[in-house]
Design brief:
The chain is α/β, with parallel strands linked by helices and 387 residues long. It contains 12 helices and 17 strands. β3, α4 and β4 form a beta-alpha-beta unit. The protein starts with 6 loop residues before the first strand and ends with a helix.
Length: 387
């Protein structure tokens, strides 16, 4: 094997400009609930082409808020994918709703839209597609299904900031009620932790603003105000606010997003060329009308290597590649099993999980890093015996 180095599967890109702007905020009068929140929200909405953006302290909080704004509650069903982080379906559980999992397309890792309708019932109140890995799914087709059954869509675009569908940026909410982003350090831009909901609906916007601040408002009062200090808590909300310290990072990072995505796509193209027509792995591809922002670069182990996933994964890590898995199907988690979800309910998702490994991809990678990843992957496969 080659000389080892450590290359994580993802990491943030923070430069001196980010640090300079952070210092300004820390030394200012407002380190939370100040002007940088509005600046980031307006910049994000403009970038994506939406009317409104509301920031939160995490992507999970943003999902919770978006489901609440749609009125999701006890007994409702929310259709989503099992190939996602648990937050996508957990947000339904927070509100007393039931997640209903739809199986995948093997070649994209996205929800198989041909299987959505079979899961729609009279209790279905929401469909939540995930743009897995930054690869946009077919929003036109899913929107037609949703319209047919009068069920709204919320896009979980935690992986897809900077991605495009039919030439327009994900987040414009052309086909959905709301779009949710995450700003965790492994995502396209980071605010440390953080998230946002974008929408074109003013009622959802006002609900989101209140939900992140305990359900409190300083306008549209139910009772007569006592004075200029007056505020009302009109429903049970949460403290899900983002700080100005986080938001200023969002402002500076967003200015670099197109460059980040460009570099991700350059790296993905190098991988595509290197891994074309080999005996070991296949890769996830962009579909027609989609422009991936490549949050992930998943490789899928071909037969019979999928039966040796643990050995391959461990050997890649031993050689300095910080590979990761995206994801264990949500319903296989012990908590979901206790709720009654069963193994085998989404067989393609389980097969995808058995084969998938996410390899390093982030803007600061050099071409030398990329070469090392490619060479190491082939060396690991060549070193193992096929069972």
């Amino acid at each position: 094997m080659q000389g080892k180095r450590l290359i994580p599967y993802a990491r943030q890109s923070i430069d001196d400009r980010d640090v300079e702007e952070l210092v300004k905020v820390i030394r200012s009068d407002f380190i939370t609930q100040g002007p940088k929140i509005n600046e980031f929200e307006e910049s994000l909405a403009t970038y994506c082409g939406a009317e409104y953006a509301v920031t939160f302290n995490s992507g999970t909080s943003a999902l919770h808020a978006a489901y609440h704004a749609l009125g999701i509650g006890d007994g409702d069903e929310v259709i989503t994918t099992p190939n996602t982080f648990v937050a996508t379906s957990n947000a339904a559980l927070y509100l007393g709703a039931k997640p209903v999992f739809t199986d995948l397309e093997m070649n994209t890792g996205n929800m198989d839209l041909s299987k959505v309708e079979m899961n729609i019932t009279s209790k279905t109140k929401l469909i939540v597609p995930v743009h897995y890995g930054g690869y946009p799914l077919d929003l036109v087709t899913l929107h037609k299904i949703a319209q047919k059954y009068e069920v709204p869509l919320i896009e979980d675009a935690a992986h897809a900031l900077g991605a495009k569908y039919r030439g327009e940026r994900i987040g414009n909410c052309r086909f959905s009620a709301m779009t949710v982003f995450s700003f965790h350090p492994v995502k396209h831009i980071t605010t440390g932790e953080g998230g946002a909901v974008l929408t074109n609906d003013p009622e959802y916007y006002e609900n989101l603003l209140m939900f992140r601040t305990h359900g409190i408002t300083k306008k549209n009062f139910v009772n007569h105000p006592h004075g200029d200090w007056y505020y009302e808590m009109q429903f049970l909300g949460y403290n899900y606010r983002m700080t100005d310290i986080q938001a200023v990072l969002g402002v500076t990072q967003l200015k670099k997003l197109d460059g980040f995505v460009k570099r991700r796509r350059e790296i993905a193209a190098l991988y595509d060329e290197a891994f074309r027509d080999n005996s070991y792995i296949q890769t996830v591809k962009e579909k027609k009308d989609s422009f991936s922002s490549y949050h992930l670069y998943p490789i899928l182990l071909k037969n019979p290597y999928h039966t040796q996933k643990k050995e391959i994964f461990d050997n890649l890590r031993k050689e300095g590649l910080g590979v990761q898995i995206h994801y264990i199907p949500v319903y296989l988690q012990p908590y979901y099993q206790r709720l009654g979800y069963k193994n085998g309910s989404c067989p393609v998702a389980e097969d995808f999980y058995q084969r998938e490994i996410s390899i390093p991809l982030y803007p600061a990678m050099t071409n030398d890093d990329v070469d090392y990843v490619i060479k190491t992957i082939f060396e690991v496969f060549e070193s193992i015996g096929v069972v």
